[in-house]
């Protein structure tokens, strides 16, 4: 199990607020007219029947180079703010909250007992680098800049998504899973085996509608051939680019979902993820053509494509699915478990 936990996974985030999703918000909030007596009665009835797991669990976080200890509840709201547009349907936000809580516990288990924590963690369990752990925004500081006059409404949406899934985690064989997520997969998600070379039974390729609603679903990157060559030589100094640019790429293998698993670049075999990083692509689901002195890459999807697709979750939620249905779709074979 330790080897399984040592599998390093990369998250890709979509931390942009989506203007197209504010529509349903007013309808959900405009009916809230409170009367003082009713509030008192409601609060009395709303006393929690169980202790809040998220309030009583703490995480140690390295954020902006500073180490902080905060309640899991506060941490998850900050992760949601950074990782998913707050206007997404609440069932999608709840699915994201469970994925984030699960991934947090997975990471904390990964590092517990380790003498040397990852660089950049400053001794903390987690960092705020989305390429390593999860992005995080401190809403006490950032909410107004992020959402303007809608800050309170959006904050409440995220707090609700966390509170309504309090303590809920996804497990496989009784262990919190590596609940990775991405902004938008292609029509199918990628498997962990194809992207990271390590199979996990709950990170297989599944159908994923709705990705094309993401504004970065299709992307184009134009690079000077010399710049791309230099970027590849930085990671593979033995690469040979003496041939014509039209011969630089050959013998690619693609996953069922469409991403490049690996490809010969300058006669050196690179993974699709390495090419994605070298060229600064939105995804490893790419095609490339020569155009004069440039290389033109076109991509489908945004992120690594593994696990929960955030735009897929949005689509399924708008189609009436609940957060648990969404999670079971994207992480097949897992179970929800209530902690605490
Ligand atoms: Zn980290």
Word description of this protein:
This protein has 340 residues and is α+β, with helices and mostly antiparallel strands. The chain has two domains: 2-210 and 304-338, no CATH class; 218-300, no CATH class. Helices cover 36% and strands 19% of the residues. Strand 8 (249-254) and strand 9 (260-265) form a beta hairpin. Helix 5 (72-83) packs across helix 6 (90-111), helix 6 runs antiparallel to helix 12 and helix 7 crosses helix 8. Residues 118, 121, 126-127, 129, 132-133 line the site of zinc ion.
- Content of β-strand: 15-25%
Q: How many strands appear in the DSSP assignment?
A: 14
Ligands: zinc ion
Low-confidence runs: 1-42
Overall shape: it is: globular
Q: Give the distance, in angstroms, between the N- and C-terminal Cα atoms.
A: 23 Å
Order of helices and strands: HHHHEEHHEHHEEEHEHEEEHEEEHHE
Class based on secondary structure composition and strand pairing: alpha+beta
Major beta sheet summary = 3 strands, mixed
Please tell me how large the radius of gyration is.
Answer: 21 Å
Report a brief summary of the structure.
This protein is an alpha+beta fold and 340 residues long.
Feature tags:
alpha+beta, 340 residues, 3-stranded mixed β-sheet, single chain, 3-stranded antiparallel β-sheet, binds zinc ion
């Amino acid at each position: 199990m330790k080897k399984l936990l040592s599998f390093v996974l990369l998250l890709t985030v979509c931390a942009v607020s989506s203007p197209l999703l504010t529509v349903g918000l007013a309808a959900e909030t405009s009916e809230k007219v409170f009367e003082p007596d009713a509030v008192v009665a409601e609060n009395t009835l709303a006393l929690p029947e169980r202790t809040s797991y998220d309030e009583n669990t703490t995480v140690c976080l390295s954020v902006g180079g500073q180490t902080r200890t905060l309640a899991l509840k506060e941490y998850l709201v900050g992760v949601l703010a950074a990782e998913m547009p707050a206007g997404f349907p609440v069932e999608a936000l709840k699915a994201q909250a469970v994925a984030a809580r699960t991934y947090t516990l997975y990471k904390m288990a990964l590092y517990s007992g380790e003498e040397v924590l990852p660089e950049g963690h400053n001794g903390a369990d987690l960092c705020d680098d989305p390429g390593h752990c999860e992005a995080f925004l401190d809403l006490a500081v950032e909410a107004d800049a992020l959402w303007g006059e809608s800050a309170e409404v959006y904050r409440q949406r995220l707090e609700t998504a966390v509170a309504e899934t309090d303590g809920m985690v996804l497990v496989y064989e009784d262990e919190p899973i590596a609940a990775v997520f991405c902004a938008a997969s292609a029509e199918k998600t990628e498997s962990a085996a194809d992207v990271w070379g390590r199979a996990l039974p709950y990170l297989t390729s599944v159908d994923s509608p709705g990705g094309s609603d993401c504004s970065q679903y299709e992307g184009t990157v134009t690079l000077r051939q010399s710049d791309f060559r230099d970027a590849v030589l930085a990671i593979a100094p033995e690469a040979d680019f003496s041939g014509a640019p039209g011969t630089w790429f050959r013998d690619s293998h693609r996953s069922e979902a469409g991403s490049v698993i690996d490809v010969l670049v300058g006669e050196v075999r690179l993974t699709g993820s390495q090419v994605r990083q070298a060229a600064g692509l939105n995804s490893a689901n790419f095609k490339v053509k020569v155009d004069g002195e440039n290389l033109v890459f076109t991509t489908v999807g945004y992120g690594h494509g593994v696990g929960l697709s955030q735009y897929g979750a949005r689509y399924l939620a708008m189609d009436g699915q609940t957060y648990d249905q969404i999670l079971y779709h994207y992480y097949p074979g897992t179970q929800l478990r209530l902690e605490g």
